[in-house]
Specification:
It is a single chain. With 251 residues, the protein is mostly helical. It contains twelve helices and four strands. It has two domains: 71 residues, no CATH class; 121 residues, no CATH class. It has a two-stranded antiparallel sheet with strand order 1-2. The chain has a two-stranded antiparallel sheet with strand order 3-4. Helix 4 crosses helix 7 and helix 8 packs across helix 9. It is extended.
């Protein structure tokens, strides 16, 4: 988006401008005054962060190459995945399926959480484990949730249950890669809420999205104006309902 000349390089001021746009994205949603919607002046920070120095040098004269940035992001993701694997595997070279479930459900706070853990206790055999490569492949899958969600919606519209084979194909379509049968079997056993050997994909996607945020997501706070708009809307709805009931009582 920022590479105007197509040379796969971005300057510091362009990178910082995009950073400001992203950081202000939520604020722009609540702006109603047209004068406030004017593009703000972008000022570069007086103090460079370690990341900015790495990308653009101490003086900011370097340009960031696309391949360098992509390599940095891939290495960062790999390091985070390996750290999480070591944390939940207690330093072992493999992760027990119970530990994988703990990692998966760590930030989950739904009414079905007790059912998930009941499935873990009753359906997962003791001693079974997941390798680091299987864990990384599953993490790669979680970065394609939007594509996977579309595939799940197709099954929902067709009123078809999502069984193991369908789930495996949907993952392949969304990511271009396959998950091991070991991972697939584990996920199915955890998220089979009805015991019908079908995936409760709505719950599954909700858990994965919470897992992706890693507990850092904060619900958007409504402004005072939006709050009173909501109160007015609900009040009008209540009055209409009273009139409707009163009208029925006349006959």
């Amino acid at each position: 988006m920022l590479d105007a000349d197509g040379n796969e390089m971005v300057e510091k001021k362009e990178f910082f401008k995009l950073q400001k746009i992203i950081s202000k994205q939520d604020d722009l949603k609540t702006i109603t005054n047209e004068t406030e919607c004017q593009e703000p002046k972008v000022k570069e920070p007086e103090i460079n962060t370690t990341l900015q120095i790495r990308f653009f040098g101490k003086r900011g004269e370097r340009k960031l190459h696309y391949r360098e940035f992509r390599r940095f992001m891939e290495n960062l993701q790999t390091e985070v995945q390996e750290m999480e694997f070591l944390q939940f595997s207690k330093g072992l070279s493999f992760m027990r399926k119970e530990d994988f479930a703990e990692w998966l459900l760590f930030f989950t706070n739904t009414e079905n959480k007790d059912i998930y853990w009941k499935n873990v206790r009753e359906k997962l055999s003791a001693g079974e484990s997941i390798s680091l490569e299987e864990f990384k492949s599953f993490c790669h899958f979680t970065t394609h949730l939007e594509d996977f969600s579309i595939a799940m919606q197709m099954f929902n519209l067709a009123h078809r249950p999502v069984r193991l084979a369908e789930f495996k194909r949907a993952v392949k379509v969304a990511t271009g890669q396959e998950l091991s049968n070991n991972i697939l079997d584990t996920v199915f056993k955890i998220f089979d809420l009805d015991g019908d050997e079908c995936l409760s994909h709505g719950e599954f996607l909700g858990v994965l999205k919470n897992r992706m945020h890693r507990g850092l997501w904060v619900p958007q706070q409504l402004s005072v104006q939006e709050y009173w708009k909501c109160v007015k809307k609900e009040s009008i709805k209540g009055v209409k309902e009273v009139w409707k009931q009163a009208g029925k009582g006349l006959f």
